[in-house]
Model the fold of this input.
Amino acid sequence: VQLQASGGGLVQAGGSLRLSCAASGHTFSNYAMGWFRQAPGKEREFVAAINWSGRSTYYADSVKGRFTISRDNLKNTVYLQMNSLKAEDTAVYYCAVAAQSYVPQDYGMDSWGKGTQVTVSS
Done:
């Protein structure tokens, strides 16, 4: 499985970014996907996840109402729309694929891509 995240950058607080993650090497539509982030000096944390069909989504409390995860199974791509960005959203964002079609209860993922940097200036 290969996952390529893109769309990161520098944005002012209150602004928006959309991250994309293109997947290859597996049947994309069969698996749940997720976004995670890691800020400097902190552990990687869960951000959002989506099941195989896109009908079920899950969010960390810190991003609920501001971020939206979605997927396009025809394009083998998962997205993270990030609105009302805050300085504390600054991190490297990673996409990941689960080993199953439904999002695991512990948000455990099977494979990870390289991250994309998101920097929010206050």
